[in-house]
Amino acid sequence: MIPSLLDLETSTLEALAAAAQRGELDTPTTLNLQPYIPAPLRDEVVAEINAARAQGLTSPGLVMLLTTLVRDRERRAVSHPRVDLVWSGPDLAGDFTRDTRVVVHELFRKARKRVIVSTYALHQGQDLFAPLHKAMTAHPDMKVTLFLDIARGDKDLPEAQLLAQFREKFRKEHWPWQPLPEVYYDPRSLEKPGSPKRACLHTKTVVIDGKEVFLTSANLTEAAQQRNIEAGVLLKSPAIAAQLTTHFEAMVNEKQLSLLML
């Protein structure tokens, strides 16, 4: 066993196992582990993997070790869901929390069947959604549903014009590819200023394949994902994933949320 691996989050172990399968850990260095491991642990993990390799650990053996650790945690998570803290903001010495953007991209890359994403603000979405589009292209049967806020602000424009503007911006700046996801919005956000019915879609959630849930204060913006001080939790819990999925689907079925025709 490589002791330092036990200190890593499950999602990190999964990303490392995938990297090992691709041959990226055949000669591990601090640099090529940078996308996966928090800074305070990188040197230790590199040293221990290299020491194990010197003692005969093969690349397939490392893949098996990482995969076994992931499966063991998944079995235990059924009765005791693991909760990992995810953080955006300045790095701190001794901080073992995960980076928001890294976690979101890892979740998008591993998706195979069903993805739900909700956010209040969306900025530079093309960069953020690129791994999700790649996964969607690789798995044509995967369903991707986005729940987005369409803010009227102080604009005194017809609803149809606001929707057309948002649609154009979404296709140009956030998702310029095919296939397209489904996009839903709360029509109350388009109520005129001063309307007592006016509301916004303020959730920031990612649900992956009915198994993993990311709940965060961070919007899908570069600032929130990387620079702002934001906090969230990553859970491996099919039960919570099912509850969130059911709730979003119920709002769609009961016409509380509207489909944006792209």
Task: Characterise the protein shown here.
It is a single chain. With 262 residues, this protein is α/β, with parallel strands linked by helices. It has two domains: 3-80; 85-259, Endonuclease Chain A (Endonuclease, Chain A, 2-Layer Sandwich), CATH 3.30.870. The protein is built from eight helices and nine strands. Helix 1 (10-21) runs antiparallel to helix 3 and helix 4 (100-110) runs parallel beside helix 5 (125-138). The chain is elongated and about 70 Å long. The N and C termini lie far apart (51 Å). 31% of the residues are buried.
Count of DSSP helices? 8
Main sheet: strands, sense, barrel: 9 strands, mixed
CATH architecture title of the largest domain: 2-Layer Sandwich
Count of individual beta strands: 9
> How many domains?
2
What spatial form do the alpha-carbon principal axes imply? elongated
**Which CATH class of the largest domain is shown?**
Alpha Beta
Instruction: Indicate the multimeric state.
Output: single chain
Query: Strand order across the biggest sheet?
Result: 2-1-8-7-6-3-4-5-9
Q: Termini distance?
A: 51 Å
Mean pLDDT: 87
Uncertain runs: none
Strand content: 15-25%
Helix-strand topology string: HHHEEHEHEHEEEHEHE
